[in-house]
Amino acid sequence: MFRAISNNLAFFRQFRQRFETTGAIAPSSRFLAKSMTRFLAARGSDPVRVLEIGPGTGPVTQRVIPLLKDGDRFDIVELNESFVEILNTRFQQDKAWQKAAPLSEVHQLPIQEFQPDQKYDFVISGLPLNNFPADLVESIADTYFKLLKPDGVLSYFEYMYVRPVRKVVTRGDEKVRITRIDDIMQGHCDRHRIQRDNVWVNIPPAWVQHLAGGRETRQDDGVES
Ligand SMILES: C[S@@+](CC[C@H](N)C(=O)[O-])C[C@H]1O[C@@H](n2cnc3c(N)ncnc32)[C@H](O)[C@@H]1O
Questions:
Q1: Cβ contact 156:209 at 8 Å
Q2: Looking at the predicted structure, is the pLDDT value of residue 222 above 70?
Q3: How far apart (Å, rounded) are the C-alpha atoms in residues 186 and 169?
Q4: What's the CA gap between 164 and 153, in Å, rounded?
Q5: Residue 155, SS3 per DSSP
Q6: Which residue's C-alpha comes closest to atom 4 of ligand 1?
């Protein structure tokens, strides 16, 4: 309880100081975290490699940790040093996190610069893409697929209706930016989407997109949670 309050305060402070990269006023709800990890939860017994991008204070990380098994690898990439400190403290102090510590590593750098030596079975991203320049979104989306195995799953969330509404209400450069981001991400969804979850219990409500690594897919839209 105390940790939840302190994490919410830390998150809100970063939202005020670094709105563009933090991108939300509060950490994700457990419902959103559950949806983000639904494919990892359905894993088999073979060892897997998991990458979480933009964990913030760790609501999704918390959900990943109990799903890990011996032999797995869990890499976490976070830009903001305040969040990195919170995550490292949890790996030292929290019992469940301590168990996963030998398999896990927190890397402080932007995802565009992360160069692991192997690809991942699961890439789980909380990046606020709608806040970024369109060129950056294009390069981050390419990075997601470069880091994902052909039979791996990418899961990311976006706040509901932000792009459709902004496309209508904005003008000039902002309209061009948001329209391009929409085209980029919609293109990836059209080619690779496995499923979209609607998560209403979150501030704000969110869509979770689940995309397949290499293959083109048929879509299963709008699973509620
Ligand atoms: C919307 S918050 C999501 C936090 C957390 N996943 C959650 O669901 O509550 C976005 C996070 O992405 C991080 N971030 C933003 N740009 C990044 C980048 N280029 N590389 C890695 N992390 C980044 C921010 O510092 C922040 O922690």
A1: yes
A2: no
A3: 19
A4: 25
A5: strand
A6: 56
CATH architecture, domain 2-224: 3-Layer(aba) Sandwich (3.40)
192 neighbors 155 (Cβ within 8 angstroms): no
Maximum distance among all alpha carbons in the chain?
52
Candidate from 28, 77, 80 with most ligand 1 atoms within 8 A of CB, to mutate: 80
Helices (H), 66-208: 81-93, 95-100, 134-147, 162-169, 172-192
Q: Which of 101, 102, 125 is nearest to 52 (CA)?
A: 125
Separation CA 224–CA 94 (nearest Å): 32
Q: What are the sequence ranges of the domains in the chain?
A: 2-224
This prediction has a pTM of 0.92
Structural Rg of the chain based on CA atoms: 17
What does the pLDDT look like over 145-194, one tens digit per residue?
A: 999 999 999 999 999 999 988 898 999 999 999 999 999 999 999 999 99
Atom of ligand 1 nearest to the CA of 128: 1
84 touches 16 (CB < 8 A): no
Asked whether 56 and 27 are in contact (CB, 8 A), the reply is yes
Specify the DSSP class assigned to residue 218: -
